[in-house]
Structure formats: C-alpha cells, structure tokens
Amino acid sequence: MKEKRYLITGGAGFIGCNYAEHLLSKGKRVTILDNLSRRGAERNLAWLRKRHGENSFELIVADVRQPESFESVVRGKDVIVHLAAQVAVTSSVTDPRNDFEINAFGTFNLLEAVRKAGHKPFVIYASTNKVYGEASEHRLVKQKTRYRYAKLPLGVSETQPLDFHSPYGCSKGAAEQYVRDYSRIYGIPGVVMRQSCIYGPRQFGIEDQGWLAWFIIAALCEKPITIYGDGRQVRDMLHVRDLIAAYDAAVSNQKVAGQIYNIGGGPRHTLSIWLECGPMLEEFLGKKIRVDWDEPRPGDQKVYVSDIRKAKKELRWAPTIGVEEGARELFEWVKANGDLFD
C-alpha cells in the first residue's frame, strides 16, 4: 500500500506541530505550509527538526490568502489537514476583513487548488464551536462555581442551529460549509471538526486565544490576568493528543467524508474559566493568583459543552485525558520551558 503523504496548513502552530510530530514519529511523509506569523512558530519547527532531523519534513513558507500558495503544494497529497487560521474572536471583532481573508478566503483558495489539481485528497477542516453562537435559547442554571445547561446534560449536538455571533464565527462557519459542499458537489472527501478548547504542550497561549495556556503562562511568569465576566463560564476541554486521535480516526475511515463532528471533551471534561480553573492552578503553583475582573467580551459563550455522541459512534473515538491531568502536564511543560516565554 502506498504511504500517505500529508499536508498540514498552519503546521508550525500549536496543533499543527503536535500533529506533525505524531505523523513523523510514525514515519509519515509530511509537508508543512505556514506563514510563520504566529508566536512560537519558529521554535516549534526547531523542536520538530531536533526530534526528527533537519530534513524530516518539507516546509513551504506561504500565506493562505494568496491562491498561488496552494497551486503546486496540494499535488500528490493524500491527506490535507487545514489548520491555518485567524483564531481569536476578539481579533475578528477589531479586524473583520483580515479574519475573513484568512479563514473563509484562505479555505476557499485551498479547496479551489485541490479541485483544479484534479485529484481528491482527504481534507480535514478544523472548525470551531463558535459557529453555534451563544445558543441563548437553552436555559442556564447558575451554580456556585459554574453555569450549566438546564436541559442539555450531554451538551450541544451537531443539529443545533448555526448562529454566527462574531466575525470569527462567520468566517469559520462559511469555510466549513464550503468544505462540506465541495465534498458533495466536486467529490473532494472532506470532514469538518467543530473543535472545542484544545490545550496541551507547545501552546503559546495569549489572552485572546488558548485561555488555559495563557492563564498558566501568566501565573508562572507573574503577568496580569483579567477575567471577563464572573468566572463561571464553562468550556469543555480537549487535550491535543485526544484531538490527534480524532484526526487519525477520520483518516482511517474516509467513509465519513462530508460529515460534521463535534470534537471536544464532552460533558465529562469541562472546566469553568476561573472559579474552578483558578483554584486548580493555585494548587499547582502553591500560592494565590491575583486577577482583575472586567465585563464579558462580545461573542463569549456562558456555557459551551459538546455533545460528542456522533463522533463516538461513527469515528469510534472518545477523549481519554482528564482535565486536571492534562492541565498539570501543560503547567509542567510551561514551567520547564520558561525561557520560551520571556
């Protein structure tokens, strides 16, 4: 059987470099396309080269906003994992054009290049739960340390109506629908992963994205932390290794082409952003963490928990890493690599 050739767009980022490392460890042929604009990108590439050799993967420095970036690189690839994106809701609000050009137009550029290349690689698109918006029709119950859905014990399913409540939600939602429709119209097998809060080693979190990593980095480096809202907001958490297992499950079962899956921690792997996260980090750190408080930000969901039953059934996949276990691993990684955050 021919060895699969992989293209990872955004492959120098947090998820991308972890997935590249996973594939390279299995002897796969990997091409990374990245514009290297994200903090930590060069360090992630250096880490991959140190682990696997200078010539262990092909690097294409290019921008997804330029159609010509994809013209030759997609040829001959068997699997394309499209991770390149503008990833922050707040940034999309301040610069919606840039958000659209990267997320929606960039994905269109990729799909058009694949269509014109004349072959049909399997495409995984990393979407987001933000396509559901606030889902405000679901009543919430306020508890001591968190909010919860009154009548959704298993979380929000893929049948939830889409409600693009931010430019980021709009651009990611438009892109995922293009992936789905190119699968139907042009026969390009694609699958959409509506991902929740992904976390793990090699995440250079910032205030606007990668919140758990940012809290850990800020706590260890004694940087100011601001909590927007009352700290009871709940997210379902998925460790990057569990996400990679979902990608592998989709690649090995390409009959799922054309489908959309919630890929998150589900109801068993949730955390409120400060009233539960804060005490956990203080236990790791061994001291109290001072925070400032501010009003909620536009587009922030009070609760988001993925109903992952469809992925469990069709991909035979489920998360395995608990939140405290995964958070402690991330904490220890940041602690051991403090020089990366100077």
Domains (count): 1
Helix content: 25-40%
Low-confidence stretches: none
Average pLDDT score: 95
Q: What proportion of the residues form beta strands (DSSP E)?
A: 15-25%
Structural class: alpha/beta
User: Could you say what the CATH topology is called?
Assistant: Rossmann fold
Order of helical and strand elements: EHEHEEHHEEEHEEHEEHEEHEEHH
Detailed description of the structure:
With 342 residues, this protein is of the alpha/beta class. The protein has one domain (5-341): NAD(P)-binding Rossmann-like Domain (Rossmann fold), CATH 3.40.50. It is built from ten helices and 15 strands. It has helices spanning 14-25, 41-52, 89-94, 96-117, 167-186, 211-221, 240-251, 277-285, 309-315, 323-336, and strands spanning 5-9, 29-34, 58-61, 79-82, 122-128, 140-142, 147-149, 190-195, 197-199, 226-228, 234-239, 260-263, 270-272, 292-294, 303-304. The strands form four sheets. The chain has a seven-stranded parallel beta sheet, with helices on both faces. Strands 9, 11, 13 and 15 form a four-stranded mixed beta sheet that branches. It starts with a strand and ends in a 6-residue tail after the last helix. The model has no long low-confidence stretch (mean pLDDT 95).
